[in-house]
Amino acid sequence: MKLIDRYGRKINYLRLSVTDRCNMRCRYCMPAHGVEKVTHDDVLSYEELYRISQAAVTTGIEKIRVTGGEPLVRKGIVPFLERLSRIDGLKQLVLTTNGLMLDEMAYDLKQAGVKHLNVSLDSLNANTFAEVTRGANLVKVLAGLAAAERVGLPVKLNMVVMRGVNDHEIERFAELTRDKPLAVRFIEYMPALKEPGWQKLSLSGHEVLERLGERYRLDAVDRHELAGPACEYRIPGAKGTIGVITPITGHFCKSCNRIRVTSTGKARSCLFSEKGVDLKPILDSEDQLALQGALRTVVTLKPDMHNVSVDQCDHTAFAMSNIGG
């Protein structure tokens, strides 16, 4: 079965948030004062999240990315992931993490059936990293990356590029791909919080490629069907790849293949759109066919493209941790 939206896009990718809690406070993800925490009763149980996943795969989803907040802070996450990995028809189970707990959990994640990790890492400098994350420990994250490498768990590193903050490290991140099979992706800063003057932090993907092009030859890499939104390249002879994700200056909406579900059961068609369906009442009814129908409805609500750009930012401000990154 296939999920096709109004614009002919095949929707085969679900981002599933299991918690709004996080052990970092990244400046682009949540305001300095933090966010109002969702109550325990509002967060979906693992059984409810499993039922959503099962319904999604039945209707045509082939890839599930488990997100947060930080998914590894939720107790019982490994058995849940193992159960997800066994859903008949699911081709790829992946997970996004900030890496703080990866050192002690990498082996268990691999055994549970996680195919690869996306690790958020915005600086290789301890002081800059602490500034961006409001105090997190870079050494812990690097230990987590080493653990993932030891157990053979492929990693994509996500770097949100911020002008005047970490953009001087672009080349250093690119160098990581020479000797290790890492996929390093440079992501344009997104104004989720709509903070005044956010544009000064913005650095386009085009400029990132221009800077890298001054030092390296970059060969384009073909995308596979379940790939994310990155345009990918490889330095000749490198073991890894470089990707650029341009949600602001180069909308990839025409090839968007995803929907998302928050930890409280709100199914959304787009990160920057509030259109969606509350799945909680349907979960309460335990009607799996109705759940499948609701997910199809979410797909029909998917917009042609979002309206966020350097010059336009009319969405309602939100914390990424509440939506699912």
UniProtKB/TrEMBL annotation:
<dbReference type="InterPro" id="IPR010505">
    <property type="entry name" value="MoaA_twitch"/>
</dbReference>
<keyword id="KW-0479">Metal-binding</keyword>
<feature type="binding site">
    <location>
        <position position="270"/>
    </location>
    <ligand>
        <name>[4Fe-4S] cluster 2</name>
    </ligand>
</feature>
<feature type="binding site">
    <location>
        <position position="65"/>
    </location>
    <ligand>
        <name>GTP</name>
    </ligand>
</feature>
<dbReference type="GO" id="GO:0005525">
    <property type="term" value="F:GTP binding"/>
</dbReference>
<dbReference type="Pfam" id="PF04055">
    <property type="entry name" value="Radical_SAM"/>
</dbReference>
<feature type="binding site">
    <location>
        <begin position="258"/>
        <end position="260"/>
    </location>
    <ligand>
        <name>GTP</name>
    </ligand>
</feature>
<dbReference type="GO" id="GO:1904047">
    <property type="term" value="F:S-adenosyl-L-methionine binding"/>
</dbReference>
<feature type="binding site">
    <location>
        <position position="156"/>
    </location>
    <ligand>
        <name>GTP</name>
    </ligand>
</feature>
<dbReference type="InterPro" id="IPR006638">
    <property type="entry name" value="Elp3/MiaA/NifB-like_rSAM"/>
</dbReference>
<feature type="binding site">
    <location>
        <position position="120"/>
    </location>
    <ligand>
        <name>S-adenosyl-L-methionine</name>
    </ligand>
</feature>
<dbReference type="GO" id="GO:0046872">
    <property type="term" value="F:metal ion binding"/>
</dbReference>
<feature type="binding site">
    <location>
        <position position="29"/>
    </location>
    <ligand>
        <name>[4Fe-4S] cluster 1</name>
    </ligand>
</feature>
<keyword id="KW-0408">Iron</keyword>
<keyword id="KW-0501">Molybdenum cofactor biosynthesis</keyword>
<comment type="subunit">
    <text>Monomer and homodimer.</text>
</comment>
<feature type="binding site">
    <location>
        <position position="69"/>
    </location>
    <ligand>
        <name>S-adenosyl-L-methionine</name>
    </ligand>
</feature>
<keyword id="KW-0949">S-adenosyl-L-methionine</keyword>
<keyword id="KW-0411">Iron-sulfur</keyword>
<keyword id="KW-0342">GTP-binding</keyword>
<feature type="binding site">
    <location>
        <position position="28"/>
    </location>
    <ligand>
        <name>S-adenosyl-L-methionine</name>
    </ligand>
</feature>
<keyword id="KW-0456">Lyase</keyword>
<feature type="domain" description="Radical SAM core">
    <location>
        <begin position="6"/>
        <end position="219"/>
    </location>
</feature>
<dbReference type="InterPro" id="IPR013483">
    <property type="entry name" value="MoaA"/>
</dbReference>
<comment type="similarity">
    <text>Belongs to the radical SAM superfamily. MoaA family.</text>
</comment>
<feature type="binding site">
    <location>
        <position position="22"/>
    </location>
    <ligand>
        <name>[4Fe-4S] cluster 1</name>
    </ligand>
</feature>
<dbReference type="InterPro" id="IPR013785">
    <property type="entry name" value="Aldolase_TIM"/>
</dbReference>
<keyword id="KW-0004">4Fe-4S</keyword>
<dbReference type="GO" id="GO:0006777">
    <property type="term" value="P:Mo-molybdopterin cofactor biosynthetic process"/>
</dbReference>
<feature type="binding site">
    <location>
        <position position="256"/>
    </location>
    <ligand>
        <name>[4Fe-4S] cluster 2</name>
    </ligand>
</feature>
<dbReference type="InterPro" id="IPR007197">
    <property type="entry name" value="rSAM"/>
</dbReference>
<feature type="binding site">
    <location>
        <position position="253"/>
    </location>
    <ligand>
        <name>[4Fe-4S] cluster 2</name>
    </ligand>
</feature>
<feature type="binding site">
    <location>
        <position position="96"/>
    </location>
    <ligand>
        <name>GTP</name>
    </ligand>
</feature>
<comment type="pathway">
    <text>Cofactor biosynthesis; molybdopterin biosynthesis.</text>
</comment>
<dbReference type="Pfam" id="PF06463">
    <property type="entry name" value="Mob_synth_C"/>
</dbReference>
<dbReference type="InterPro" id="IPR058240">
    <property type="entry name" value="rSAM_sf"/>
</dbReference>
<feature type="binding site">
    <location>
        <position position="190"/>
    </location>
    <ligand>
        <name>S-adenosyl-L-methionine</name>
    </ligand>
</feature>
<dbReference type="GO" id="GO:0051539">
    <property type="term" value="F:4 iron, 4 sulfur cluster binding"/>
</dbReference>
<dbReference type="InterPro" id="IPR000385">
    <property type="entry name" value="MoaA_NifB_PqqE_Fe-S-bd_CS"/>
</dbReference>
<keyword id="KW-0547">Nucleotide-binding</keyword>
<dbReference type="InterPro" id="IPR050105">
    <property type="entry name" value="MoCo_biosynth_MoaA/MoaC"/>
</dbReference>
<comment type="function">
    <text>Catalyzes the cyclization of GTP to (8S)-3',8-cyclo-7,8-dihydroguanosine 5'-triphosphate.</text>
</comment>
